[in-house]
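Handout, section 3.2

Students often ask what a structure token actually looks like in practice. Rather than define it abstractly, here is a full record for Probable glycine dehydrogenase (decarboxylating) subunit 2. The first block is the sequence as you would receive it.
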Amino acid sequence: MNNKLYGKLIFELSHPGRKGYSMPENKFGNYTLPAEMKRSKDAMLPECDELTVVRHYTNLSGNNFGVNNGFYPLGSCTMKYNPSINEEMAAADAFTALHPQQPENTCQGALEVYYNLQKSLAAITGLEEFTLNPFAGAHGELTGLMIIRAWHESRGDHKRVKVIIPDSAHGTNPASAAVCGLEIVEVKSTAEGIVDVNDLRGLLDDTVAAMMMTNPNTLGLFEKEIPEIAKLVHECGGLMYYDGANLNPMLGVCRPGDMGFDVMHINLHKTFSTPHGGGGPGCGPVGVRKGMEHLLPCPKVVKEGDTYKVQTQGEGDIHVGAYLGNFGVAVKAYSYILSLGKENIKMAGPLATLNANYIKERLKDVYDLPIASICKHEFVFNGLKDKSTGVTTMDVAKRLLDYGFHAPTIYFPLLFHEAMMIEPTETESKETIDEFINIMRIIAQEAKDNPELVKTAPHNTPIGRVDDVLAAKQPVLRYKG
């Protein structure tokens, strides 16, 4: 767009005296505010007419990229499409008009949704019972680790203060363990990208509280040694924790509870389609195996006969919030599960795996594939195969913007210097995936024929390449006229 007004800040469009809204007539009289509540000078606010404001924010919204706009292949984030029916259900008046403190007999429908979602998640994962209270994945991790710590302490086993975490893990794993007051012990990966069982054996003793694992792991690889790992950890008295960030490709294939995991969290805002990104909203339910249900935090929804009740006190003393988590996200996830049904939800995992392997195989001749084995829902390239061009993963990511695609996750995991993590999810069509593959191949050829074109990308966006370090360290958060 060449319009000179497009791209300006709302403050730059301001003109003294312009009004976009007229306040209604004052019917309440005039009251004097205390001096300490008054400003020393007027707030610096933009003065614009309504049409200017509408056009400004409408044009600005066009700069936002979301899964509703185009392909969003962020690895380890599962940016799958959120069906409109989910939003319609969550926006229903019967749900949005509720108050968390109203009597139970007036919100039986909402409590039934909670209860059924808890049971659905238990069936899908092979665990006994879930709490929906945590507000995000990391919040779920912390809750799960608190449950594990409480489990050991309830048995008088106070010396278990270590959590074993693979070197390929998401950064939230060690962060959550540290916040929980536990000591982090790193276990190495093999050359094939999975946990090194021999390295693990040397780390196990009676101070180990748990081992945290993501399966498939952050490289998109299925941890095939889990039966042996679970056996070893359980034999030393530790528990197995499943980070559910990558649960998506497991749907319909296998269940964490059947693998030997004792506690896990699920990212509803990833695996079950609810919106993910921009800091929320999120929901990180935590599930436990049979025998640990009493440690789940309250409040929780229970069923007595045909009536649903909120249990506010339990045997456990873990508290993660006064209410029952993020209700809107829970409604969307339950809508997604009901829409797919028991039969079709089994297709999600295999289709996500098929899409990821299809992209990997179609691009591995031009992009460096450090681990060539079959992946699950995501995989990692180590930049371009031809390193002589000097074109980096960052350059490829920026160039993708010129072609209307969001970039994949880059420079993570840290195991590879030029990591490029791609996750297509099961919701993308073959036509979309083929177009992404085609553009990735075009960029690889551009890197050979005209590397400066790629190194200086993007060229077709409202803002070119910014100084990421400066933007992070010295962000400009206020307008200074």
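Discussion prompt for tutorial groups: Residues 347-472 form a domain with the Aspartate Aminotransferase, domain 1 fold (CATH 3.90.1150.10). How would you have guessed this from the sequence alone?
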